[in-house]
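User: C-alpha coordinates for this one?
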Amino acid sequence: MENQLIEGCKKGKRQAQKELYETYSRKMMGVCLRYVNDKETARDLLQDGFVKVFTNIKSYSGVGSFDGWIRKIFVNCALEYLRKLDVLRETTEFNDTIELLYSDTSVVSDLSVMELMNLIQELPIGFRTVFNLFAIEGYSHKEISEMMNITESTSRSQYTRAKQLLQRRIYKLYGIKR
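Assistant:
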Protein backbone atom coordinates (compact mmCIF):
# COMPACT_ATOMS: atom_id res chain seq x y z
CA MET A 1 0.00 0.00 0.00
CA GLU A 2 2.75 2.47 0.99
CA ASN A 3 4.76 1.65 -2.14
CA GLN A 4 1.71 2.33 -4.32
CA LEU A 5 1.22 5.70 -2.63
CA ILE A 6 4.88 6.59 -3.13
CA GLU A 7 4.80 5.57 -6.79
CA GLY A 8 1.56 7.51 -7.30
CA CYS A 9 3.14 10.60 -5.74
CA LYS A 10 6.22 10.21 -7.92
CA LYS A 11 3.88 10.30 -10.92
CA GLY A 12 2.18 13.44 -9.56
CA LYS A 13 -1.20 11.77 -8.92
CA ARG A 14 -3.30 14.05 -6.71
CA GLN A 15 -5.23 11.20 -5.07
CA ALA A 16 -1.98 9.53 -3.99
CA GLN A 17 -0.70 12.85 -2.61
CA LYS A 18 -3.94 13.32 -0.69
CA GLU A 19 -3.74 9.82 0.79
CA LEU A 20 -0.08 10.26 1.72
CA TYR A 21 -0.94 13.55 3.41
CA GLU A 22 -3.82 11.93 5.31
CA THR A 23 -1.60 9.01 6.33
CA TYR A 24 1.30 11.09 7.67
CA SER A 25 -0.09 14.52 8.58
CA ARG A 26 -0.96 13.73 12.21
CA LYS A 27 2.39 12.13 12.93
CA MET A 28 4.32 14.91 11.18
CA MET A 29 2.27 17.56 13.00
CA GLY A 30 3.51 15.93 16.19
CA VAL A 31 7.08 16.29 14.92
CA CYS A 32 6.50 19.98 14.13
CA LEU A 33 4.94 20.62 17.55
CA ARG A 34 7.99 19.14 19.26
CA TYR A 35 10.09 21.97 17.84
CA VAL A 36 7.68 24.92 17.96
CA ASN A 37 5.02 25.47 20.57
CA ASP A 38 2.70 27.55 18.41
CA LYS A 39 0.07 25.54 16.52
CA GLU A 40 -0.17 28.04 13.66
CA THR A 41 3.59 27.90 13.11
CA ALA A 42 3.47 24.11 13.34
CA ARG A 43 0.72 24.07 10.67
CA ASP A 44 2.89 26.27 8.45
CA LEU A 45 5.81 23.88 8.95
CA LEU A 46 3.52 20.95 8.16
CA GLN A 47 2.53 22.53 4.85
CA ASP A 48 6.14 23.47 4.02
CA GLY A 49 7.22 19.93 4.85
CA PHE A 50 4.67 18.32 2.58
CA VAL A 51 5.60 20.67 -0.25
CA LYS A 52 9.19 19.45 0.17
CA VAL A 53 8.06 15.82 0.39
CA PHE A 54 6.11 16.06 -2.87
CA THR A 55 8.85 18.08 -4.58
CA ASN A 56 11.59 15.63 -3.57
CA ILE A 57 9.74 12.31 -3.50
CA LYS A 58 11.44 11.20 -6.72
CA SER A 59 14.71 11.18 -4.77
CA TYR A 60 13.36 8.56 -2.35
CA SER A 61 15.11 5.40 -3.48
CA GLY A 62 13.30 2.92 -1.26
CA VAL A 63 16.42 2.34 0.82
CA GLY A 64 15.52 2.75 4.49
CA SER A 65 12.06 3.39 5.80
CA PHE A 66 9.84 5.94 4.14
CA ASP A 67 8.71 7.03 7.60
CA GLY A 68 12.32 7.90 8.46
CA TRP A 69 12.83 9.72 5.16
CA ILE A 70 9.72 11.86 5.59
CA ARG A 71 10.47 12.54 9.28
CA LYS A 72 13.93 13.84 8.36
CA ILE A 73 12.33 16.34 5.97
CA PHE A 74 10.07 17.66 8.72
CA VAL A 75 12.87 17.88 11.27
CA ASN A 76 14.93 19.84 8.74
CA CYS A 77 11.98 22.16 8.03
CA ALA A 78 11.66 22.89 11.74
CA LEU A 79 15.40 23.50 12.08
CA GLU A 80 15.40 25.82 9.05
CA TYR A 81 12.61 27.82 10.66
CA LEU A 82 14.46 28.02 13.99
CA ARG A 83 17.69 29.02 12.22
CA LYS A 84 15.88 31.86 10.45
CA LEU A 85 14.71 33.15 13.82
CA ASP A 86 18.29 32.76 15.09
CA VAL A 87 16.92 31.45 18.39
CA LEU A 88 19.39 28.60 18.44
CA ARG A 89 22.22 31.10 18.95
CA GLU A 90 20.77 31.89 22.35
CA THR A 91 22.25 28.69 23.70
CA THR A 92 25.30 29.18 25.85
CA GLU A 93 28.30 26.98 26.36
CA PHE A 94 28.94 25.34 29.70
CA ASN A 95 32.22 23.49 29.94
CA ASP A 96 31.94 22.78 33.63
CA THR A 97 30.65 19.38 34.57
CA ILE A 98 27.07 19.27 35.70
CA GLU A 99 26.07 16.78 38.30
CA LEU A 100 23.17 14.74 37.01
CA LEU A 101 20.37 13.74 39.28
CA TYR A 102 19.08 10.27 38.65
CA SER A 103 15.38 10.18 38.16
CA ASP A 104 13.04 7.90 40.00
CA THR A 105 12.04 5.52 37.22
CA SER A 106 8.72 4.71 38.90
CA VAL A 107 7.73 8.38 38.64
CA VAL A 108 8.71 8.57 34.99
CA SER A 109 6.77 5.42 34.17
CA ASP A 110 3.66 7.00 35.73
CA LEU A 111 3.81 9.92 33.29
CA SER A 112 1.54 9.74 30.29
CA VAL A 113 3.04 10.41 26.87
CA MET A 114 0.98 13.60 26.65
CA GLU A 115 2.24 14.84 30.05
CA LEU A 116 5.84 14.18 29.03
CA MET A 117 5.36 15.87 25.64
CA ASN A 118 3.82 18.90 27.37
CA LEU A 119 6.81 19.12 29.73
CA ILE A 120 9.21 18.89 26.79
CA GLN A 121 7.20 21.58 24.96
CA GLU A 122 7.70 23.94 27.93
CA LEU A 123 11.50 23.71 27.73
CA PRO A 124 13.38 26.77 26.46
CA ILE A 125 13.72 26.49 22.69
CA GLY A 126 17.44 25.64 22.61
CA PHE A 127 17.05 22.92 25.24
CA ARG A 128 13.93 21.55 23.53
CA THR A 129 15.54 21.44 20.11
CA VAL A 130 18.66 19.60 21.28
CA PHE A 131 16.59 17.26 23.47
CA ASN A 132 14.30 16.37 20.56
CA LEU A 133 17.18 15.84 18.14
CA PHE A 134 19.20 13.69 20.55
CA ALA A 135 16.65 11.80 22.67
CA ILE A 136 13.78 11.45 20.21
CA GLU A 137 15.24 11.66 16.71
CA GLY A 138 18.47 9.83 17.61
CA TYR A 139 21.04 12.25 16.20
CA SER A 140 24.53 12.33 17.73
CA HIS A 141 25.90 15.47 19.39
CA LYS A 142 28.32 15.80 16.47
CA GLU A 143 25.42 15.74 13.98
CA ILE A 144 23.43 18.19 16.11
CA SER A 145 26.38 20.57 16.32
CA GLU A 146 26.64 20.58 12.53
CA MET A 147 22.87 20.96 12.01
CA MET A 148 22.53 23.80 14.51
CA ASN A 149 25.92 25.44 13.93
CA ILE A 150 26.94 25.07 17.58
CA THR A 151 29.77 23.17 19.24
CA GLU A 152 29.42 19.59 20.40
CA SER A 153 29.98 20.72 24.00
CA THR A 154 27.08 23.17 23.64
CA SER A 155 24.88 20.36 22.35
CA ARG A 156 25.86 18.14 25.27
CA SER A 157 25.33 20.87 27.86
CA GLN A 158 21.96 21.85 26.39
CA TYR A 159 20.87 18.21 26.49
CA THR A 160 22.09 17.80 30.07
CA ARG A 161 20.36 20.97 31.19
CA ALA A 162 17.15 19.95 29.39
CA LYS A 163 17.16 16.60 31.25
CA GLN A 164 17.76 18.36 34.57
CA LEU A 165 14.96 20.83 33.97
CA LEU A 166 12.59 18.06 32.90
CA GLN A 167 13.51 16.11 36.01
CA ARG A 168 12.82 19.07 38.30
CA ARG A 169 9.46 19.63 36.59
CA ILE A 170 8.53 15.97 36.93
CA TYR A 171 9.44 16.03 40.63
CA LYS A 172 7.38 19.18 41.09
CA LEU A 173 4.45 17.65 39.21
CA TYR A 174 4.48 14.63 41.53
CA GLY A 175 5.35 16.59 44.67
CA ILE A 176 8.67 14.80 45.19
CA LYS A 177 11.22 16.60 47.36
CA ARG A 178 14.88 16.33 46.31
